[in-house]
From TrEMBL:
Keywords: Endoplasmic reticulum, Membrane, Transmembrane, Transmembrane helix
Coiled-coil ranges (or none): none
Function: May be involved in the degradation of misfolded endoplasmic reticulum (ER) luminal proteins.
Subcellular compartments: Endoplasmic reticulum membrane
Protein name (Swiss-Prot/TrEMBL): Derlin
UniProt similarity note: Belongs to the derlin family.
A Pfam family that the UniProt record links to this protein: DER1
Signal peptide: none
Location (main, coarse): endoplasmic reticulum
Length: 252
């Protein structure tokens, strides 16, 4: 009975967030226990460029240290990943998966210049940043009950990490924020001003994760979760397939 309840709880987590959590636990524990060499999956641009080991662009997102920090990170990923996928991306797990892929690849590009080998913190901050944009007016609490608007949450985490690390700039966290902001601008802000969608979700992802119509999902102009700036699941899938239907003309 207990096993069934645990399995049901696991399956209740939205599919993309569940996959991120599972991959992080499996790869991080395997690397820490020496079942798998971390040097085979961490971000290493010479191996990517000269050996065509493209998998590192994604596997490096799931490497984090064990211990309390890992539990803390997994809790954050679970909390804000589930909220994004079940509200802002409700019925559109393919779009959420594309957000993760786009921001991971963008953060990996920053890693080429700044030299960091893992992208988990970048992925985590990307998720938190997008959540903060979709819930900008919500009040959140941090250490010792300090309260502030969700809009500032990513920057509070960066400042907290900066102080704990002895004034070392957390470039990996900043890369995650920058990549999420780029995605948010190209996918929501710019189209809302009359521009085109420059980074539509690849149609292959819609094949793997079929969209479902759910009312009330998306970004609002000033924060929130209204769907005024986001295409519906069906529209997004149609655009990805190359169909852009007009509104038509009334007959007669």
């Amino acid at each position: 009975m207990a096993e069934n309840e645990l399995l049901a709880a696991y399956k209740s987590v939205p599919i993309v967030t569940r996959s991120l959590l599972t991959a992080t636990v499996v790869l991080s524990v395997s690397a820490a226990m020496q079942f798998l060499s971390p040097y085979l999956i961490m971000l290493d641009w010479p191996s990517i460029i000269y050996k065509f080991q493209i998998h590192r662009l994604l596997t490096s997102c799931f490497l984090t240290g064990l211990g309390f920090n890992m539990l803390f990170d997994l809790y954050f990923l679970y909390t804000y990943g589930v909220q994004l996928e079940s509200t802002t991306y409700a019925g559109r797990s393919a779009d959420f998966a594309w957000f993760i892929i786009f921001t991971s690849f963008t953060s990996a590009g920053a890693g080429y210049y700044f030299g960091f080998r893992t992208l988990f913190q970048s992925m985590l901050l990307a998720v938190i940043y997008l959540w903060s944009q979709a819930n900008s007016e919500r009040i959140v609490s941090f250490m010792f009950g300090i309260q502030f608007k969700a809009l500032y949450f990513p920057w509070v985490l960066v400042a907290y990490n900066f102080l704990l690390s002895g004034a070392v700039v957390p470039w990996n966290m900043l890369a995650g924020i920058a990549s999420a902001h780029l995605y948010y601008f190209l996918e929501s802000v710019y189209p809302a001003r009359g521009g085109r969608r420059w980074i539509p979700t690849p149609f292959l992802l819609y094949k793997l994760l079929p969209p479902q119509e759910v009312a009330g999902a998306g970004f609002a102009a000033g924060g929130g979760t209204a769907n005024v700036l986001r295409p519906t699941a069906t529209t997004a899938a149609a655009e990805a397939a190359g169909h852009r239907w007009g509104r038509g003309e009334r007959l007669g």
